[in-house]
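hey can u check if this looks right to u? its 883 residues, i copy pasted from the old doc so theres a chance i mangled smth
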Amino acid sequence: MSLFSDLSERARALFYGEQQSREVDEELRFHLEREVQENVRKGMDPEQARRQALLAFGGVERVREETWEARGVRPVVDLTSDMRYAFRTLGRNRGFTLAAVAVLGLAIGASTVVFGVVNSVLLSELPYPHPERLVRIHQQNSPTNRFGLSAVDYQAIRDQARTLEAVGVVLMRDVSLSGAGRPEQARVGWATAGFFRALGVSPVRGRTLAPPDEEPGAPPVAVVSYAFAVQAFGDAAAAVGRSVTIDGVSHTVVGVLPRGTDRLAAARAAVWPVLQLEPPKRRGPFTLYGVGRLREGVSLEAAVRDLADISRRIFPTWASGFQDRTALLTPVPLRAAIVGNAGRHLGIFGGAVALVLLIAVANVATLMLVRASARERELAVRASLGATRSRLARLLVAESLVVATLAGLAGWVVATFGLRLVGVLDPNLPRLGEVALGGRALGFAAAAAAASGILVSLPAVSVVLASVASSLRSDDRRAGTSQRANLVRGALVVSEFALALPLLLGAGLLLNSFLRLQRVDPGFDPAGVVGVSVSLPAARYSDMATADRFWRQALERAQAAPGAVAAGLSTALPPNDALTGDVNNFDLVAHPAPAGAQPTSPWSGVTEGYFQALGVALLDGRLFTPADSSGAPPVVIVSRSWAEHYFPDQQAVGQEIVAGGCTECPPTTVIGVVGDVKYLGLAGSADAVYEPLAQYGSQAKAMNPQTVSLVVRSTAPPSAVFSAIREGLRALDPELPTVETTLSQRLQSSVADPRRWTAIVAGFAATAVLLAALGVFGLMSYVVRQRRREIGVRMALGAEPASVIRMIVGRGMRYALLGTGIGLGVALLQARWLRALLFEVAPTDPGTIAAVAALLLVVALAACWLPGRRAAHIRPLEALAAE
């Protein structure tokens, strides 16, 4: 009970210090008046009675102190008093206060944003019941190669898995979608009932999908997001029972998901129609995203063994179309699958912010040390009047804590607004919709502010208090004190340069990589080329003949667009469509690959005018003709890189391949070789295989031939071409949605991530270099003020201004060189983390290292030269007179 009372008193002193002070004063007055009355009864006159009472109490101030000591709250009250004093003194020096709070506040705010993102993305559990039991199921044939599931895989897992309580799949596709308005091209998630059951998602209206909905021929139904229900039908309650048209087929809305649920297991869609799988004819395609829920008490290792057994059981049945015996069905924790490489990216981002925070702390610590050195006489006078070293330390710490508290508040405001930029800085961040600043982030900001406050006070406390007793003595002692202070200030500046260089090197490497990436030849001339993507509703274009007729008519209208030079059709557009799955496996008839080791390549269906529209040259053989129809022998055209890769010593034209793993299909003949075009991003290989659009999908390959792009090269403005194509398509089918783009825009978008990372790290690097420059500038300016008399004597004795500048600049550059050297060692250790973000640049690229080191030293030189120039203009007589 006594411990509780003691803690209670201390807490009351902290939050109710003024009230406690009044209580103590009232108690003292009460006892003093009783003592005075007692002395009067003893015969003393009132004045003598009061004087004797004061003597008996040992002085009111002494009694007050003893009362505080008795209550055990004296240190807390002293700290509160010191904080109030610090507020007053800092208020009289607003320039210093604003500078320190701004520097530290921005760093704390950025750190809080990063912590909020890391907490939401990496640390927080997924927003589903018992998320630790959720797994994503892949096909996996190596530690790094994972791909999706097929209908065969899903049905086998659903029927045979003993370790899973529920399993479901989703197929993400761009389709024609209309609710209450005009059709538009949108991404929907074709899902099975088990997908919702595995995640444990419950609707706010209606129901989710049920197993009977999955049966082929069952009435088509869909679940919609809350936002879509409000947008399309005006109200979530009114959506259930209404219809939404997907790919020309009317689906009845049976349920509405909770508000804010626009992503399920990282798959984003506004509408989730039921996926009705027909009995499979072959093992592929592997386009399904599988999610499962482990049974209670089942370990992940048990599920791995269970699914591996299923893989081995079904392999012989489907081996004719899928020969990779090493590929096994593999479950991985869903959170790990969703996060993916985000941990590495956030690690780089967090490391950059941490370095900036440390530089900011060092910068403010330097300011606090300079300020404390200027108050050395004041502190010495306090010491001579009886103030203890701990009392003086509290004064300095309190001032630092006040600055840190204000910086923490400013940092929270910065973080609140900065959080809105997260989506702009990295729109591909997983769990982006869950990122928020909560209690943990607030606690982190408070902890960062408190730690920063203590850290920035340490140099001042260690240097000033160690010499405060000697500051009133001889000049020699003061010289020793100043020397110690200068050493600490120099160490802080060195640390700023050591921390700034890794950031600057990271920015330099990313910039070098980005410039190299931009110089990569994409294989086509984007100038004047437009692309219009069209998705044909499967209900109205279910057979190949109907679709072919539409595409021929659409191509004729595109060829008639203003200024049209050439036009063609393609199922994939460069430079990065193959990154989202437009690839196909194949085998060489002349050189069969070992079972399970079939290569893959970007694979697209095109018409003969596509190559001319892109400006891709024919190097060997021939291009497609109308004779390469669906009933003709299968043929392909390959890129030069593909030909050199698979037939380095032979002519590729005339060679035969087996496409799509279909061993029962006739072989496909290579009829031509064209120039390289990038489909796997500018950093990817230039391998590519082109198939006549009329034959595309005829062998059940893993693509969706319903979505095709019109590609037109024109001398007219893009807006005029888009308008003409739009009108031509409306004349054919007024309900078709389109997505319009230019190839120049696609080329710029393909380097958006490298550009973004370069800008982010460069921004932090610029901040770090600026802070380091301000640090050395402030230090050398202080040195000039400190040595003003010495410099005046030197100049009076004939020293040239140039020699004075060299003296100041030389001293500052020694700090910068030492910091740069240390920073190089740190940078070389951390550069490997950037390897995954670099293109044709080594993390230890000597040219980049030399360039950033030189840039940092040039900035340091400029920061040192300004105080040196000021020192060179000191007038000797004025300097000596001031002393």
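DSSP finds 28 helices and 24 strands in the chain.
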